[in-house]
Task: inverse folding
């Protein structure tokens, strides 16, 4: 698949690195299907630069959704609305996969004698 004039997404990633930009790949899913989310960021952003995101099918043959990650200067200049791109993806049924080794934070249970033999419990997460 050609992407922004490049022969592939990987070629796009190599070329953006030459121009002081970083790409990040994330796996998202919808209805049991995997998708690739590609975020492109400036390493040394100027007030005029805007980061972008693109959602592709897992086999990288089709672009599904795309958008920008606005900065404060862009919002002020355009009068735009700050809309979190992860919220936009979630509204469309896409959710980020979490790594299998990302265990939830341990929950600590603390009990204290509240008097009369009763215990008061507090949950700390």
Result:
């Amino acid at each position: 698949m050609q992407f922004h004039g490049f022969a592939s997404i990987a070629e796009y990633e190599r070329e953006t690195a030459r121009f002081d930009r970083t790409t990040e790949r994330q796996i998202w899913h919808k209805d049991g299907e995997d998708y690739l989310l590609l975020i492109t960021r400036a390493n040394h952003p100027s007030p005029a630069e805007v980061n972008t995101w693109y959602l592709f099918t897992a086999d990288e043959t089709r672009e599904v959704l795309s958008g920008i990650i606005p900065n404060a200067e862009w919002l002020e200049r355009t009068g735009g609305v700050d809309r979190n791109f992860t919220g936009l993806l979630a509204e469309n049924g896409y959710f980020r996969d979490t790594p299998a080794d990302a265990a939830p934070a341990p929950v600590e249970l603390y009990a204290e004698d509240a008097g009369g033999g009763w215990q008061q419990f507090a949950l700390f997460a």
About this structure: The longest helix spans residues 9-18. The CA atoms of residues 4 and 27 lie 21 Å apart. The helical segments are 9-18, 72-78, 85-91. The first strand starts at residue 21 and ends at 30.
